[in-house]
Design goal:
The protein is mostly helical. Helices cover 72% and strands 0% of the residues. It is globular.
């Protein structure tokens, strides 16, 4: 049940760090200046451009880890074909070449564009209702007190973060982000299913399946439809919904502990 967990965690950590690094660079390029200088429509597309560019660069960095995670998780036979991610990489490069570690990347990047647009649109649509811009009176008094204390000691980093980055909207902001991502993923889920099943199909020995390198993704999509109908593209979607609940619980818990600790991280 934990097959591929190491590659998955490594990809999530490396991908998150890479996205944060690229986010700053892409924001300087696609969205210079302040939000107020753009119209609502222009600001929306610029935010989409920043998010998509940063996510695409991060995906390109961690894609071999994601491919390894997919194939290790599906490697349930006995004996195991791959003991770990490095064994998978060694086998795949030897059998199919280095570029086989990036099979499906164009489809992944293509699915990322509607995902970002839908997620950003849902967030912007619900944010005025779900996220109150004005904090409650008691919280506003507390923030004003911290702001006065920071003015007296401007070099205090902890007070700066508490004043400039308060968390009055927790956990609504995280729940809204999770809901927006879920709606976007529901729309792009067939593409993700097709990509992952195609990736696993291609990790075959040439001696057993000589035509494996010639199996195009459109051919495989047609094969999936003939074998399982259109419902095959939403296989595992119910489990994906169930997985969202503990993910949000862990994310909210970690965020709450980090904010309570006063750590600048």
């Amino acid at each position: 049940l934990w097959r591929g967990a190491g590659a998955h965690v490594a990809g999530a950590c490396l991908g998150g760090a890479s996205r944060l690094i690229f986010m700053r660079t892409t924001q300087m390029w696609a969205k210079p200046g302040r939000d107020q200088q753009y119209s609502s429509f222009q600001g929306f597309w610029r935010r989409c451009a920043v998010s998509y560019a940063a996510a695409s660069l991060a995906i390109a960095v961690v894609y071999p880890l994601d491919l390894g995670y997919t194939c290790l998780a599906a490697d349930c036979g006995q004996p195991r074909r791959f003991r770990h991610w490095f064994a998978f990489v060694n086998y795949t490069v030897r059998e199919h070449g280095f570029l086989s570690l990036y099979r499906g990347l164009p489809l992944c990047l293509g699915a990322g564009l509607p995902f970002v647009i839908v997620a950003t649109a849902v967030h912007d649509l619900l944010a005025p209702t779900v996220l109150r811009r004005d904090p409650p009176p008691e919280l506003k008094q507390e923030l004003d007190r911290k702001a006065a204390a920071y003015t007296a000691q401007p070099d205090n980093l902890e007070q700066l973060l508490q004043v400039k980055a308060p968390a009055p909207l927790f956990p609504r902001s995280l729940l809204l982000g999770g809901f927006a991502g879920f709606i976007a993923q529901s729309i792009t889920y067939p593409l993700d299913t097709l990509r992952r099943r195609w990736q696993h199909e291609l990790v075959q020995a040439k001696a057993n399946l000589p035509e494996v390198d010639k199996l195009g993704i459109l051919d495989y999509a047609s094969k999936m439809r003939k074998e399982g109908g259109w419902r095959a593209f939403y296989g595992g979607f119910g489990l994906n919904i169930v997985k969202l609940v503990p993910e949000l619980m862990v994310l909210c818990g970690v965020y709450h502990l980090a904010s309570r600790s006063g750590s600048f991280v």
